Amino acid sequence: MRRNRLRSGLLTATLIVTAAVAWWYFAPTNIGGSTQYVITSGVSMEPRFHTGDLAIVRPSSTYRVGEIVAYHSTLLHVTVLHRIIAIHNGRYFFKGDNNNFIDPVQPTRSELVGKLWLHVPHGGLFLKAFHTRVVAAVLCALLGLVLLAGAGKERRRRKRRRKDATGSGPPRIPIVNSPRDHDVPRPFNFRALLTASAIAAAVCVVLGLFAFARPASKPSANVTPYSQTVTFGYSAPVTPGPVYPGHTIKTGDPIFLTLVHNLRVHIDYSVTGAMPDTVAGTEAVVLELVGPNGWSRSFVLTPATHFSGNHTSSDVTLNLPEMQKLLTKVETLTGSAGVGTFSIAVRPRVHISGVVAGHQIKTEFAPTLTFQPQSGQLVVSSAGTSSGGATSGGATGASRAAYTQSQPGSVSSRATAPATITVFGVSPGIAMLRWISILGLLLSAAATVYFYLRKRGEPFEESYRIQAQYGHMIVPIVGGEDLGWPPVDVPNIKALVRLAESGQRLILHNRSNDIDTYMVNEEGTVYRYQVKPSKVVWGEWTDAPVPTQTAANAAAAQGAANGT
What's the whole-number mean pLDDT along residues 69-88? Predict the structure, then answer.
């Protein structure tokens, strides 16, 4: 009985600790807890989060750049789960991993709900299912069936107790749980299941201590790319004729100096990638004439002009006859050999500043479109950039793609990545191990309670336990009922075992008419204990002795059991 009380106390303590842990980590805020359950929707956090996923967030003492945090959006009036990209003047700047813009709302610390703790893919769909009327009705029906079954079982136990108290029923004897070699059904081995549940709970506790002792995330570099692109083009009015059938030439058409006088160059600039709409900058266009022997001269076609956003365009016009006069004069004064050695370059100079992934950037982009006079024709000789960007070029008649130049860039910011551990080639995440340990502990505790209650409600016979505990002292016999003199009945098996041990004798066992008889021959006196096929359960266990033949025999047996 003392062992049962100790086991019951340990079970109660385990349930209390499990309930406290479950409340601390999983109790929602609407019932006084600190955990918030967020069901994600949309594509702003793909590929990590998808519609219907469940994000469990908990409040934190610190929030850092790179962490996924939920906050109350005063604009949308919903809870938003995005990543922090910057913190400035007490305001938190958020951005979805799959968005190319920063959230329009910058919440304060008081508007933050909590930091991502656990991510359950498709968990939101199951959580929503529990709120439907059909599922709620099914759960209530199952709960009602369990309660009715438990109430019915308790009523049956009370009836048996009242029947035993009036003496109309068979005597209750100690419960047993051990095998014997006859046709009575063997009881289920709940002890092995309880042991397995306890081992599983211990493993989950060790796994939880290991997982919670390590950070769930680790620092990593979050590289955000962007690109600046300039597309050149040109056009000019011409007189229709044998050379030009139309009134205008376009990009790729040949440029004859005798027929084209005013060449219009179009410059289209854009920023692509993760750049937000708050980019601002200036653009200036410069004309550079470069001659032999290092001679050069620059002309400002368009002064620095401010623009905002990630796109701007401008147009400049080149007066080709005036440039030819200037180049001819320079050739005469310097004695250079031929105008063909000169080049004409149109160079836009773009300076931008903005925020990429929460970081301020300032950069410059200066691509170049170069023409060369050759045999009375102006030819696009090269297209390049002075800032180390990617280039593409082509001669006159090339496709429009030949006039597109780009300069890639990127910013690197500190971020966090899920921490993992590699075991036998498998790399589970620390957060997943935490989730497994908590769920495993809860399931193990539930299994322990279930098997314990099943064990207490499972009917057994005493002979099982006698055979399991004292089988090494028991010898089966045949036809041991006709002793020639009346035996002395003892109240329980423990008294009979005491007699056998004191006289260093074996216990004789005989089964007849479904009654198990255990006997010890002590110097001519036979002491007997009989077990009738009456099943009991743990909750109805009693030490009440079986009826004896005579009061004198009972007194003698009790005295022998006590060693008097």
Answer: 88
Give yes or no for a contact between 272 and 230, defined as CB atoms under 8 angstroms apart.
no
In the prediction, which pLDDT does 555 show? Answer: 47
Residue range(s) defining the domain that contains residue 379: 226-415
| pLDDT per position as a tens digit, 159-208 | 655 555 554 444 433 333 333 444 444 555 666 777 787 888 888 888 88
- The pLDDT of residue 262: 92
- Site of tokens 């063909």: 340
Give Cα separations from 209 to 127, 213, 433 (angstroms): 28, 6, 10
Rounded Cα distance between 505 and 478, Å, is: 18
Taken in order 339, 341, 346, 348, is the CA torsion positive or negative?
negative
Q: Which residue has the tokens 């793909």?
A: 46
Same domain assignment for residues 389 and 467: no
Terminus-to-terminus CA distance in the chain, angstroms? Answer: 26
Q: Which of 353, 381, 415 is the last residue of a domain?
A: 415
Q: Which of these three, 70, 97, 129, is where a domain ends?
A: 129
Q: Are residues 409 and 467 in the same domain?
A: no
pTM: 0.43
Q: How far is CA 289 from the centre of its chain?
A: 61
- Is 16 part of a structural domain of the chain? no
* Measured distance CA(428)–CA(210) in Å, rounded: 13
Contact between 406 and 390 under an 8 Å Cβ cutoff? The reply is yes
What CATH number is attached to the domain comprising 230? 2.60.40
Q: How far is CA 461 from CA 31, 173, 184, 349, 353, in A?
A: 47, 9, 9, 97, 86
DSSP 408-432: EEEEEEEEEEE-B--BTTB--BHHH
| Res. 212: pLDDT tops 90 | no
Please tell me whether residues 98 and 243 are part of one structural domain: no
Considering the domain architecture, whether residues 293 and 385 belong to the same structural domain is answered as yes
Look at residue 67 and tell me whether its pLDDT is greater than 60. Answer: yes
Could you tell me if 263 and 332 lie in one domain? yes
pLDDT for 350 beyond 90: yes
Q: So what's the pLDDT on residue 338?
A: 53
